[in-house]
Amino acid sequence: MGGGGGTEAFPDLGRHCQNSDCNQLDFLPFNCDNCNKVFCLEHRSHKSHNCPKPDHNSRKVIVCETCSTAIETTGQDEKLLMEKHMSSGNCDPRNKKKPTCPVKRCKEILTFSNTSTCKTCQIKVCLKHRFPADHLCRDRQPPAAVKASNGGRRWNEKFLVALGSRSGKDCGKNGSGSSGSPSNSNPSIKAC
Protein backbone atom coordinates (compact mmCIF):
# COMPACT_ATOMS: atom_id res chain seq x y z
CA MET A 1 0.00 0.00 0.00
CA GLY A 2 1.66 3.25 -1.08
CA GLY A 3 0.25 6.71 -0.48
CA GLY A 4 -3.38 5.42 -0.47
CA GLY A 5 -5.07 4.56 2.73
CA GLY A 6 -7.98 3.00 4.44
CA THR A 7 -8.80 -0.45 5.61
CA GLU A 8 -10.32 -3.39 3.77
CA ALA A 9 -13.80 -2.35 4.87
CA PHE A 10 -13.24 1.39 4.19
CA PRO A 11 -10.57 1.79 1.51
CA ASP A 12 -11.02 5.59 1.20
CA LEU A 13 -10.65 6.26 4.93
CA GLY A 14 -7.35 7.86 6.06
CA ARG A 15 -3.97 8.10 4.33
CA HIS A 16 -0.54 6.58 4.94
CA CYS A 17 2.29 8.86 6.01
CA GLN A 18 4.63 9.42 3.08
CA ASN A 19 7.73 9.59 5.26
CA SER A 20 9.82 6.61 4.10
CA ASP A 21 10.51 5.41 7.66
CA CYS A 22 6.93 5.75 8.95
CA ASN A 23 4.13 4.70 6.56
CA GLN A 24 1.62 4.95 9.44
CA LEU A 25 -2.09 4.93 8.57
CA ASP A 26 -3.47 8.25 9.79
CA PHE A 27 -7.17 9.09 9.78
CA LEU A 28 -6.45 12.84 10.15
CA PRO A 29 -3.44 13.32 7.86
CA PHE A 30 -1.60 16.59 7.22
CA ASN A 31 -0.73 17.91 3.76
CA CYS A 32 2.60 19.72 3.43
CA ASP A 33 2.14 23.15 1.80
CA ASN A 34 5.52 22.99 0.08
CA CYS A 35 6.05 19.43 -1.17
CA ASN A 36 2.32 18.48 -1.31
CA LYS A 37 2.88 15.13 0.41
CA VAL A 38 0.74 13.61 3.18
CA PHE A 39 2.17 13.10 6.68
CA CYS A 40 1.10 11.92 10.11
CA LEU A 41 1.11 14.13 13.20
CA GLU A 42 4.72 13.24 14.04
CA HIS A 43 6.07 14.16 10.59
CA ARG A 44 3.85 17.13 9.73
CA SER A 45 6.47 19.87 10.29
CA HIS A 46 8.89 20.77 7.51
CA LYS A 47 11.86 19.94 9.69
CA SER A 48 10.59 16.50 10.78
CA HIS A 49 10.04 15.19 7.24
CA ASN A 50 13.09 16.96 5.75
CA CYS A 51 11.03 18.94 3.26
CA PRO A 52 13.11 19.57 0.12
CA LYS A 53 11.50 22.98 -0.46
CA PRO A 54 12.09 25.84 1.99
CA ASP A 55 9.15 27.11 3.97
CA HIS A 56 7.88 30.07 1.99
CA ASN A 57 5.46 31.26 4.71
CA SER A 58 7.93 31.57 7.57
CA ARG A 59 10.05 34.63 8.29
CA LYS A 60 13.56 34.07 9.54
CA VAL A 61 15.93 36.80 10.68
CA ILE A 62 19.66 36.68 11.38
CA VAL A 63 21.49 39.34 13.39
CA CYS A 64 24.79 40.75 12.16
CA GLU A 65 27.39 40.29 14.88
CA THR A 66 29.33 43.34 13.69
CA CYS A 67 26.60 46.01 13.76
CA SER A 68 23.61 44.28 15.43
CA THR A 69 21.37 44.81 12.39
CA ALA A 70 18.54 42.30 11.82
CA ILE A 71 18.50 40.86 8.28
CA GLU A 72 15.47 38.95 6.96
CA THR A 73 16.47 35.70 5.22
CA THR A 74 13.11 34.37 4.02
CA GLY A 75 13.91 31.64 1.51
CA GLN A 76 17.42 32.94 0.76
CA ASP A 77 20.92 31.74 1.59
CA GLU A 78 22.06 33.18 4.93
CA LYS A 79 25.77 33.30 4.06
CA LEU A 80 25.09 35.09 0.78
CA LEU A 81 22.89 37.68 2.50
CA MET A 82 25.48 38.25 5.23
CA GLU A 83 28.25 38.79 2.65
CA LYS A 84 25.99 41.22 0.76
CA HIS A 85 25.28 43.11 3.98
CA MET A 86 28.99 43.33 4.91
CA SER A 87 29.93 44.71 1.49
CA SER A 88 26.99 47.16 1.30
CA GLY A 89 28.64 49.78 3.50
CA ASN A 90 25.75 49.77 5.98
CA CYS A 91 27.60 47.41 8.32
CA ASP A 92 29.29 49.75 10.80
CA PRO A 93 30.65 48.43 14.13
CA ARG A 94 29.99 51.83 15.74
CA ASN A 95 26.25 51.12 15.46
CA LYS A 96 26.51 48.15 17.81
CA LYS A 97 25.90 50.21 20.96
CA LYS A 98 22.94 48.75 22.81
CA PRO A 99 20.35 51.01 24.46
CA THR A 100 20.55 51.36 28.24
CA CYS A 101 18.09 52.47 30.89
CA PRO A 102 17.92 56.30 31.00
CA VAL A 103 17.67 56.44 34.82
CA LYS A 104 20.71 58.06 36.45
CA ARG A 105 23.39 55.50 37.47
CA CYS A 106 21.45 52.57 35.92
CA LYS A 107 23.51 50.69 33.35
CA GLU A 108 20.96 47.97 32.52
CA ILE A 109 20.96 47.13 28.80
CA LEU A 110 17.43 47.26 27.40
CA THR A 111 16.44 44.09 25.57
CA PHE A 112 13.13 42.79 24.29
CA SER A 113 12.36 40.91 27.49
CA ASN A 114 13.41 43.48 30.12
CA THR A 115 12.09 46.73 28.62
CA SER A 116 9.03 48.54 29.92
CA THR A 117 7.47 51.66 28.41
CA CYS A 118 6.01 54.09 30.94
CA LYS A 119 2.32 54.72 30.24
CA THR A 120 2.61 58.28 31.54
CA CYS A 121 5.76 59.67 29.89
CA GLN A 122 6.40 57.02 27.17
CA ILE A 123 10.07 56.54 28.17
CA LYS A 124 11.57 53.06 27.78
CA VAL A 125 13.16 51.90 31.05
CA CYS A 126 14.32 48.61 32.59
CA LEU A 127 11.95 46.55 34.73
CA LYS A 128 13.56 47.81 37.93
CA HIS A 129 12.49 51.39 37.09
CA ARG A 130 9.08 50.64 35.50
CA PHE A 131 7.03 52.55 38.08
CA PRO A 132 6.73 56.37 37.70
CA ALA A 133 8.26 57.00 41.14
CA ASP A 134 11.36 54.97 40.22
CA HIS A 135 12.31 56.85 37.05
CA LEU A 136 11.26 60.38 38.03
CA CYS A 137 8.42 60.45 35.57
CA ARG A 138 8.07 64.01 34.26
CA ASP A 139 4.24 63.89 34.15
CA ARG A 140 3.88 62.91 37.82
CA GLN A 141 2.18 65.30 40.25
CA PRO A 142 4.72 67.51 42.03
CA PRO A 143 4.80 67.33 45.85
CA ALA A 144 3.01 70.72 46.15
CA ALA A 145 0.03 69.37 44.19
CA VAL A 146 -0.13 66.32 46.46
CA LYS A 147 -0.13 68.60 49.55
CA ALA A 148 -2.96 70.68 48.14
CA SER A 149 -5.02 67.60 47.29
CA ASN A 150 -5.09 66.39 50.93
CA GLY A 151 -5.90 69.77 52.48
CA GLY A 152 -2.34 70.85 53.27
CA ARG A 153 -2.03 68.28 56.04
CA ARG A 154 0.56 65.55 55.76
CA TRP A 155 -0.44 61.91 56.33
CA ASN A 156 1.62 61.51 59.51
CA GLU A 157 -0.06 64.55 61.08
CA LYS A 158 -3.44 62.96 60.38
CA PHE A 159 -2.22 59.73 61.95
CA LEU A 160 -0.98 61.47 65.10
CA VAL A 161 -4.28 63.34 65.52
CA ALA A 162 -6.24 60.11 65.14
CA LEU A 163 -3.92 58.29 67.55
CA GLY A 164 -4.27 61.02 70.19
CA SER A 165 -8.06 60.92 69.99
CA ARG A 166 -8.18 57.21 70.84
CA SER A 167 -8.89 56.19 74.40
CA GLY A 168 -6.87 53.51 76.21
CA LYS A 169 -9.62 50.92 76.00
CA ASP A 170 -9.45 50.90 72.17
CA CYS A 171 -6.03 49.23 72.24
CA GLY A 172 -5.81 45.48 71.77
CA LYS A 173 -3.54 44.69 74.73
CA ASN A 174 -3.31 46.64 77.93
CA GLY A 175 -1.17 44.01 79.67
CA SER A 176 2.58 43.62 79.49
CA GLY A 177 2.74 40.19 77.85
CA SER A 178 1.96 36.52 78.26
CA SER A 179 4.08 35.96 81.40
CA GLY A 180 2.26 38.54 83.51
CA SER A 181 5.44 40.26 84.77
CA PRO A 182 6.85 43.36 83.06
CA SER A 183 10.06 42.79 81.16
CA ASN A 184 12.57 45.64 81.09
CA SER A 185 14.99 43.82 78.73
CA ASN A 186 12.66 44.23 75.70
CA PRO A 187 11.07 47.67 75.85
CA SER A 188 8.06 48.03 73.60
CA ILE A 189 6.41 51.08 72.15
CA LYS A 190 2.79 51.36 73.17
CA ALA A 191 0.25 53.52 71.43
CA CYS A 192 -1.97 53.64 74.53
TrEMBL record:
GO CC terms in record: cytoplasm
Annotated Low complexity bias: 179-192
Species: Cannabis sativa
AN1-type domain ranges (all copies): 11-59, 95-145
Pfam name, any one: zf-AN1
Function: May be involved in environmental stress response.
Protein's recorded name: AN1-type domain-containing protein
GO terms of molecular function: zinc ion binding
Stretches the record annotates as Disordered: 166-192
Keywords, alphabetical: Metal-binding, Zinc, Zinc-finger
